[in-house]
Specification:
The chain starts with a helix and ends with a helix. The chain has a two-stranded antiparallel sheet. By secondary structure, the chain is mainly alpha-helical. The longest helix is centred in the middle third of the chain and has 16 residues. About 10% of the residues are buried. The protein folds into 2 domains: about 60 residues; about 30 residues, no CATH class. α4 packs across α5. The chain has 7 helices and 2 strands.
């Protein structure tokens, strides 16, 4: 939710925030401060006020959208692991090397 609020419709900014969230996950999720405080600190680093962070984290419409996306991924796409990739409809689950993707994509380019 925080990454979506910070980035708005800027994909590059969204992924940059997600990267920060993963890198600092041990701190904000399991650290000495509460999760909300940890996320607030990240939001402030990205230029949000504490009120904006609080509003973001309480945005029920955004939460409902994320929950609907998760439900669609689980129920329709059958995503049950992270990461999961789709290459022209074929599923690649879990960690995969560049060679796995290279082989999959090259075989599709030949057809």
């Amino acid at each position: 939710m925080l990454a979506r609020c910070i980035a708005k419709d800027d994909a590059a900014k969204y992924f940059a925030v997600v990267d920060v969230l993963f890198k600092q996950q041990m701190d904000w999720a399991y650290g000495k401060t509460s999760t909300t405080e940890g996320l607030g600190r990240i939001g402030k680093q990205a230029g949000l006020s504490q009120d904006q962070v609080d509003t973001c984290l309480k945005d029920q419409a955004l939460l409902d959208k994320i929950a609907a996306d998760q439900k669609y991924a689980a129920d329709i796409l059958k995503v049950n692991s992270t990461p999961t990739f789709f290459v022209n409809g074929d599923v690649i689950k879990g960690e995969a090397s560049f060679d796995v993707f290279d082989e999959k994509i090259k075989s599709l380019l030949k057809s």
